[in-house]
Amino acid sequence: MSGFLKIAIRNLLKGPVTDPYPFGKTFIPNKLRGKLKVDPKACTACGTCEEVCPSGAIHITKNENVYVHTTWYNTCCFCGNCEFFCPTGAIKLTNDFHTANTEEEKYRFTTVALISEIKCESCGEMFVPASEALLKRAYPNVNDTIRELTKLCPKCRRKKAFERLYQ
Amino acid sequence: MSIITRSPFLFRINTGSCNGCDVELATTAMIPRYDVERLGCRYTGSPKHADILLVTGPITARSKPYLLEVLDELPNPFVVVAVGTCPTSCGIFRDSYSIEGPLERYVKVDVNVPGCPPRPQAIIDGVAKALEIWKEKIRNQK
């Protein structure tokens, strides 16, 4: 009620205000769920976002040594499930609401992020390393030993961790 | 001709929408804060007068005949704007047994405004794009 009164009094004093949007600047709330922003450094291409997306807007495909994270906005319902379930916090919904697009752009209206693989230091196999955000979530204290293990592929990592335990 | 291109009529049809997009459309049209009539267009109650068709909803089986009726009655040239994710690609309702969408199966869509629902400013963006396309169509027809 107080909010309504505030607006009523402001309107009485200043008069109703029309948003000058197509010709001027507009107000956007900070919590607005708009287009996605994917941080390729934090993303580990785990596929959680693809799994939880109710409208099937997110697809992760693999090209040569790179994972392509594509979001097609013409089917996205901006629910924010991807942001909520992302284990590394790589996906953030920005407050960019500019979604109007013509029919020619329909299938090109996407956001693409490239998540590149690295070479295993031991065997040379290509793999996606655990990101810093994921390490911070998994371990209370991230030290150099743990960071060194992220440079190894899952097989070599298992081997090295086992060796470390019994030496 | 310049007079004609200044005042297009908007017609809105709900084809099984959840009302989210309709509320945003009402906000765009009726509340002075997001006044879509500044662009020169007005809402009409009859598809026979319409120049720009705004469609909300994923085209349910029950609403399909009404949509086809409206499409028959539209005068040429007309511009179709799909408001919301549902008419654009059916969104979360895709592959449902009661959905006959998306809209592009029945008519050539000109502008898509995805969002669930789209923000009033995004709808104004879409209408502004539709206006340009409509003017272009009239120029080509003459």
Automatic annotation (TrEMBL), chain A:
InterPro entries recorded: 4Fe4S_Fe-S-bd, 4Fe4S_Fe_S_CS, NADH_quinone_OxRdtase_chainI
GO molecular function: 4 iron, 4 sulfur cluster binding; metal ion binding; NADH dehydrogenase activity
A biological process from GO: aerobic respiration
Pfam families: Fer4 (PF00037)
Keywords: 4Fe-4S, Iron, Iron-sulfur, Metal-binding, Repeat
GO cellular component, one term: membrane
PANTHER family documented for this protein: FORMATE HYDROGENLYASE SUBUNIT 6-RELATED, NADH DEHYDROGENASE UBIQUINONE IRON-SULFUR PROTEIN 8, MITOCHONDRIAL
Protein name: 4Fe-4S ferredoxin-type domain-containing protein
Species in which this protein is naturally found: Lebetimonas natsushimae
UniProtKB/TrEMBL annotation, chain B:
Annotated GO MF terms: 4 iron, 4 sulfur cluster binding; ferredoxin hydrogenase activity; metal ion binding
Primary enzyme class: oxidoreductase
Domain of life where this protein originates: Bacteria
Entry protein name: Membrane-bound hydrogenase subunit mbhJ
Family per record: Belongs to the complex I 20 kDa subunit family.
Keyword 4Fe-4S: yes
Required co-factors: [4Fe-4S] cluster
Family matches, as PANTHER family: FORMATE HYDROGENLYASE SUBUNIT 7-RELATED (PTHR42989:SF1), HYDROGENASE-4 COMPONENT I (PTHR42989)
Residue span, NADH:ubiquinone oxidoreductase-like 20kDa subunit domain: 18-129
Signal peptide bounds: none
EC numbers for this chain: 1.12.7.2
Keywords: 4Fe-4S, Iron, Iron-sulfur, Metal-binding, Oxidoreductase
